[in-house]
TrEMBL record:
Organism: Pseudoroseicyclus aestuarii
Keywords associated with the record: Signal
UniProt cross-references to InterPro entries, sorted A to Z: DUF3576 (IPR021959)
Protein name per UniProt: Uncharacterized protein DUF3576
Signal sequence extent: 1-21
Keyword hit for Signal: yes
């Protein structure tokens, strides 16, 4: 079987490379790949603002999870740690989940709700400051 001319081989290789590059993790609309989870930037930033007294141990913007170590709030005596999950790009209470714990165990539901409300309020403030 005769071999292909050099120019045709180079064209075929180039076409193959461009075809593979087109599969590089972007969806047809040009956004992030389907594996990436979008999180609301206001909820994300507000969570870090409100709980700034807690040392951040791990952040994963792809899954929307922020994990902290123990820290004591200003004027408080009880140390807390938190796991925050921002699960949606919407600025919505359903997109936010906060789990607080002390060394003795989980905190009361009212305390968790108060922290979630503080984060939601701060997120709205940040959004308004951006002119939305």
């Amino acid at each position: 079987m005769p071999s292909m001319p050099r120019s045709l081989r180079l064209t075929a290789i180039l076409a193959l490379c461009l075809g593979l590059a087109a599969c590089g993790g972007r969806n047809p609309a040009g956004g992030p790949s389907a594996e990436a989870v979008a999180v609301n930037r206001y909820l994300w930033t507000a969570s870090l603002d409100v709980l700034d007294f807690l040392p951040v141990q791990n952040v994963d913007p792809f899954t929307g999870v922020i994990t902290t170590g123990y820290g004591t709030p200003p004027g408080g005596s009880q140390p807390y740690r938190a796991v925050i999950h921002v699960s949606d790009p919407a600025l919505d209470a359903r997109a936010l989940s906060v789990a607080l714990a002390t060394p003795a165990g989980p905190v009361a539901r009212d305390t968790q709700i108060a922290v979630e409300n503080a984060i939601l309020s701060r997120a709205r403030q940040l959004r308004i400051a951006d002119g939305y």
